[in-house]
Amino acid sequence: MQDASTFLTFFAALAVLEITPGPDMMLIIARGVGQGRRVAALTVVGNIFVAGTIQVALLVLGLASLLAAYPAALQILQWTGAIYLLYLGIRMIWGSFKNHATGAPKAKPVSGWRAVREGAINSLTNPKSLLFMFTFLPLFVDPNAGPVWLQLLVLGSIQKLIGVFSLGGVALASGSVGQFLNRWPKLLAWQERFTGIVMVGLGIRLLLSGSPSPMPSAAR
After folding, report:
1. Are 67 and 74 in contact (CB under 8 A)?
2. How many domains is the chain built from?
3. What is the pLDDT of residues 168-208, one digit of tens each?
4. Residues of the domain holding 72
5. Domain-embedded: residue 200
6. Other residues' Cβ atoms within 10 Å of the Cβ of residue 54
7. Helix 23-35 to helix 185-208 angle, to the nearest 10 degrees?
8. Smallest Cα–Cα separation from 83: which of 142, 125, 139?
9. What pLDDT sits at residue 152?
10. Is 116 within the bounds of a domain?
């Protein structure tokens, strides 16, 4: 397997990825503030254990090489993720006016299955996560250090396990903030609007950002 210096470089890159806000983090914050810790935690389950398992499996099976040969496939994923972010953001903004209006009924709780499903879809169409896995992870693979598939499996699994702690922490923190904001419905409404606007902005940015950079071969 890789030497210590390679792992240190990998962890440094991974730390930057985890602390940088992205679509997954914004969705978890929105769920935590608006629906509580349980729903936010289930969104993390969808992000990490459902989408993460699929992403790591595809990486090990050679999707990195496939995307390197057909970069348009990643562009399609990027557009899909952008449209999904726009959908979630617009729905959140609309809901903030509808659910917090004077005399309006309380917002319908998000079911556990829906939280897991939306978390998984958001992560599977998240270019930030896909680009890291399929572009940067292969850079840390050394064909002379052992089977390439095993190295990709280890590196991908480490990334997802660290995500459990980083996104899990965000879920718990946002749930606590949500309990505080629930005492002031107007503040909660504005938080939902702000989060929705950010998600719409991320979606528009992804639509206008152009094609991703070419990806290296997984055999490097």
Report:
1. yes
2. 1
3. 998 988 887 776 666 666 666 776 777 778 778 877 876 77
4. 4-11+23-208
5. yes
6. 13
7. 160
8. 125
9. 82
10. yes
In a domain, 218, yes or no: no
Residues of the chain with pLDDT below 70 are 1-3, 16-17, 19-20, 63-68, 70-71, 73-75, 77-78, 81, 98-108, 128, 135-136, 139, 179-188, 191, 206, 209-220
**Burial group, residue 113, by CB count within 10 angstroms (0-12, 13-18, 19+):** exposed
66: its two tokens: 């496939």
Q: Which long-range contacts (CB under 8 A, 24 or more apart) does 48-51 make?
A: 48/123, 48/160, 48/163, 48/164, 48/167, 50/116, 50/119, 50/120, 50/123, 51/119, 51/120, 51/121, 51/122, 51/123, 51/124
| Side chain identity at residue 125, one-letter code | T
Which among 145, 149, 133, 111 is positioned nearest to 48, based on CA atoms? 133
